[in-house]
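>> received
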Amino acid sequence: MNGAELLVQCLEAEGIEYIFGVPGEENADFMIALEKSSKIRFILTRHEQGAAFMAEVYGRLTGNPAGALGTLGPGSTNLITGVANSNMDRAPMLVLTGQGSTNRLHKESHQIMNVVDMFEPVTKWATSILDPDTIPEIVRKAVRLARTEKPGAVHIELPEDIAAEETSRRPMSPRRFRRPVIDDKLAGQAFELLKSAKRPVIIAGNGCIRRRASKQLRRFCEKTGIGVISTFMAKGCVDMDADYCLYTVGLGAKDRVNLAIDEADLVIALGFDMVEYHPNLWNQHNDNRILHIDFLPAEIDEHYNPKLELVGDLAHTLWMMNERLDAEGVPEYDLASQREIRAAMAGDFAEHRDDRTTGLIRPQKALWDARAVMGPEDILLSDVGAHKMWVARHYHCHEPNTCLIPNGFCSMGFALPGAIAASIVHPERRILALCGDAGFMMNVQEMETAARLGSNIVAFVWADNAYGLIEWKQDTHFGHHTDLNFGNPDWLLLAKAFGWHGHYIDAAEDLQPALDGALAEKGPSLVVIPIDYRENPLLTRKLGEITCPI
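>> returned
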């Protein structure tokens, strides 16, 4: 067999099920070999960036990497934004790119560039196959690194002459391994910290959405009652209806939930990535005692210097804490103010549930209605823009991985292609891609992919004919904004042109039934509303006026 055929066999042995991408001339051998596979499905996309976002969401929902395929040169550069997004959001991904023959890599040649060096800063590992006999080792290493905590993207480049070269090697058998765990002495030290606190609070990060970690976290909170504040990417790690759920932090302003951190005498950071919500926003004076519990040691930062670090498998560490609680009893805490904060936040969320506005629809109403039509297991994907900030504050979850928000690299254009992948992983669930008009149009070409696949998804577009988040930020900091306005297509004609269902809703009372109906339609559907972003500065002022009562 040749190198390309061996690569496919190795991917099959690793359990790779999907590859999303756009082929090119230099990976033709690979595509011919892939065509013969009965175990891997190739999904043709309309742009490599869309392919990378699809692979990212597949990885986030399954914990296993999918492939994102591009050819050399522009195919590779088109992938990189989605790859960087996946890597910073801790989603496993296998990036596969073609390359010209090795006999022309040393000189100026058509479409030749150093793709490996380009991918190195945005992946856990990037390499080129220079000998077909090394393919089994390279694939084994790449997939293992992609899956290993914290997960991320890896890149394999296959030059066209290596793809065609014969080899007698065979795939390596994957081996699973247990992650390291903390020792009993450290667990004891952590428990002493827990006993010494009166007003502890938990900041739950991206690591907490793994099912095992979420299960143990919920068990821990049922015992202790300690409030859990989720980052954007940790939504659903605890049930939104639980008394200890303190919703989401991360807007950067002085939100109500920040008061729980201000009054805490111990901050338990679980699976927390600094990129999600920088500690200088919640530990400005370096006066918080921090217990760091995560798969990796704490990132070095002036505002994040933990009292104690528990480094090991997150779920196992929480299990050890739960066993201590069972054996030694639960400390007494004073958590009344956390429950008051939760009640005040819940009141904010319901403030506009019964709006009957026309012409423009408030973000709060749009999200209340979205939550009302989505079941506990249904999946909302948020793009990046002003709407993302509203989703972060006002849309909450019952289960992990049911609200996907890019919050590390924060790339626009994520939600539409991501929704296609979500519908592949969970065809039985409702899938809602919430987008701004700017982000939606960045990967609008994937409407064709959704139509071709018959994806049961709804793209819920908030239209303000502008880069709304940038406008919000500029107005807040400078008192005015630069020219950020643009035009949009006729939304209903756009939907028709791509073979989608189309709905334009400008009356608040009609929104919930329209969303419910669109989610029940067979095939992809577009729901567009004119959004009332006059609420943005009102929220800024509201959050800025909140002060801590102690």
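>> The radius of gyration is 24 Å.
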